[in-house]
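Table S2 (text version). Query chain:
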Amino acid sequence: MTTLSRREQRTARRRDLDGSGPALPGRVIGRHPGVVGGFALLGEVLLTGVLVTVASLPLVTLPAALVAGSAHLRRYLRAESTSVGAFVADYLGALRRGWAVGLATLLAVGVLLLDLDLAASGALPGGQFIAIVGWAGLAAVALALGTAAADWSARTGWRVALRRTPRIVRRDPVGALYLLAAFGLVGVCTWALAPLLVPALGCLVLAIVAIPERRASRAA
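Corresponding structure-token output:
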């Protein structure tokens, strides 16, 4: 049996942890081999927030940015390559038709925010009812966007992902509440301090990835 030097042992342990080499003998590989520590995951979430923020600056590109960010984190969890080039490739693939989804989302959010502003001004009768409708509409848009981004694939595209969204929400209402809480976190953090948008978007992408994983673990 060959005895490894200390340097070779350190190299083997490093490759075992980052997924670039074979696992060490006797170690059971978990479901997410890329997660080697909480700080490493936090750093990847923050990096994902930066990538998604930059990619969504035109606003209509937000759905494609969420898809690319989700794919980036999934690769990290599987100990696969998490290069910026891979993120850009996913982003461009989701953007080919995702810009239309982004435009529709932007228009819907604009109308709903206008309704909320009118409800708060008192210029219209029934302002409280209008406000309830406005907040419910924003929640529905956020839920549809996050669920579709999690379900999107290059093979099926946006239309199938959006069509399956109501069924996914009905099957996992608790997961839908988690997703709404993540969107709420983005809104509150951005309102409190604009630069917090970056880490908040990273946390949102983590929620988009984690909620389907939660469903899969429950079904297993």
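Notes on Table S2: The mean pLDDT is 85. Residues 105 and 141 are 7 Å apart (CA to CA).
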